[in-house]
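Recap from last week: sequence in, structure out.
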Amino acid sequence: TKARFAFDGGFIEKARDEIESVSEKSLTNLQEKAEYNYRRGRIFHKNNQFDKAILAYNRAILLSDGHDWHFGASSCLQLGYI
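Predicted C-alpha cells:
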C-alpha cells in the first residue's frame, strides 16, 4: 500500500524503496503477490528499466490468471506501451 501511494503521488524513488523492502516470498496471499509484481513492474517501467518491468508484468499476468483482479489486464496494457 505504501508503494502504491508513493507511486501514485509521483514519489517514484520512495515507491521503489518501499517495494524493495518486501519480497514476493514473504507474501502468502496470491492476490497480494500479483499486485506486488504489478507495482514492481510500474516502478521499473517508470524508471525505464524495461527488461525488469516486462518480467514483473509477466509474473503479475501469470499470478492473475483465472481471477478477476485487474493486475493481469493492467499488466497486459503496460506491456503494450513498452
